Amino acid sequence: MVHLRQHDNGHDNSVQKRLQQPPTSSTVFLRRPSTSSSTSTASDENAPVISDRPAGYILETYGLPVRTIGQGTGGYVKLHQGCDGRLYAVKTFTFPSTSDRTKMTTEMNVRQWKHLLDEASFSLSLRHPNVIRTYQFVRETDGTVYSVMEYCEKDLFTVVQDGGLTRGEIDRLFLQLVSGVAYLHDAARVAHRDMKLDNLCVDEEGNLKIIDFGCSSTFDPLQPAQTRGICGSDPYIAPEVFVPRAQYDPRKVDVWALGIIFLAMVSGHFPWEVAKAEDSNYTLYLKYRGRVIDHWLARDDPANGVIKSMLVIDPLMRPTIDSVMREPWMVELTERYGRVPT
After folding, report:
1. Which of 118, 155, 171, 194 is catalytic?
2. Residue spans with biased composition (Polar residues) (predicted)?
């Protein structure tokens, strides 16, 4: 596990990372958890735009790779620099060529291809200042598929791990995160399902960007939003996701994950390793509920009640992202930092 390092950045009002033991059996230090397996139920109603291009198109158009910058759901991401100096994040998916009939007809590859079509379809349509911009999906002649996105230098895990964020900066980033998720749920009809510090980037102007839609699912606004299967990284996953064969609302799962993200940002720790009864920290949360949250956030902290509501065990009682946006604390943050379009 990775201990959150605190660096002296000269800010007197930096958030003090709590290094003492919480009122739980053990401290869960901030570290990059592995991603659990996924079963997505995304829709395939809208045909995506995946351009077929000759071999070498990505290198000729977006320049040579500089270095590997991440491992996303279903592929790896490299930094490319074009001849004009512009930087791009290029994610590589390996998928069989349509000429390879043997591989293409296997159930696994057909399912993977459909999921990739879903991801391409809604990723290309997303337009929000706090959602990463996807410029193009390309399939070269060898069957390799690439997505080309805007580049952000840092992920939020690194920013939080390095310390130095003031409480005001945390509040501002959280407002942008909630605004971005509200756009996804309300306008794009997309649930992310893998919200975590690693899937949030910060650009050179200090603005947050939501990335990696490989676990996402779309939904019909006129029908109950239900999906099934485990997707995400353990410390962030809502408890209902672990119920065998159960369906759940992926939007409420996103809301839960945002509550975990805020606690990690202000404290430097995960409140528990996984939201299961065998986790002793989570068991204490089941027993004491609000008292555990009070350790991470003082009772008079304006965020306290909001985060408690986002971490309600029963998803039916957990607020929607719109309800979170209407909370007095969020309204105050909007007035302070400006409204982000949703």
Report:
1. 194
2. 16-28
Closest CA relative to residue 271, chosen from 25, 4, 35: 25
pLDDT surpasses 90 at 314: yes
DSSP 8-state secondary structure symbol assigned to residue 188 = I
Give CA–CA dist 7/159, Å, rounded: 11
- In DSSP notation, 95-117 reads ---TT-HHHHTSHHHHHHHHHHH
Per residue in 182-212, pLDDT tens? Answer: 999 999 999 999 999 999 999 999 999 999 9
50-150 folds as Phosphorylase Kinase; domain 1 (3.30.200)
Q: Which of 204, 52, 216, 69 is nearest to 142 (CA)?
A: 52
- The span from the CA of 266 to the CA of 273, in Å, is 17
Look up 194 and say whether it is catalytic: yes
Could you state, in order of their start, the residue ranges of all structural domains in the chain? 28-38+153-337, 50-150
The pTM score is: 0.83
- How is domain 28-38+153-337 classified at the architecture level of CATH? Orthogonal Bundle (1.10)
